[in-house]
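Q: Here's a chain of 149 amino acids. Please give me its 3D structure as tokens.
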Amino acid sequence: MEKGTNRTLNELLVHLLNNVMDIEAEAVITEEFKDISNNDMHIIEAIGIDEPRKMSSIAKSLSITVGTLTTNMNNLEDKGYISRERSKTDKRVVLVRLTEKGRKAFFHHRDFHRQMIRSVVKDLEEDEMKVLIKCLQKLTRFFDEQYHK
């Protein structure tokens, strides 16, 4: 690959990675959700809207410790975004679910991601979409192999 192409790719990736969290936070943390952070939104996303989830599985999906997650959960519970309860079958297990306020934040965050994806793919041909997916899979694999050992 020629030097100019490498430089262009590097500039694009650095710009994208440096800005994505800031741009997302600006778009997602609106007046209604100003009491939580973008990180909190990602925790809400990890909890999801389906069945209650175990603290341990949420922590694993976020690549953080249960201790770190507990601190964030205390904050989200105090603000009314989540509720926690002990499992009826195993009292050691804490189950987390989104409250109505948490579900509203979840859908708000999801809508931002849907708009972002629509914007990226709206003019792509099927073969271009396959190339984009392949490139993003390679980038994900690189980060996983290098930094999530």
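Q: Can you summarize the key feature?
A: The first strand starts at residue 53 and ends at 54.
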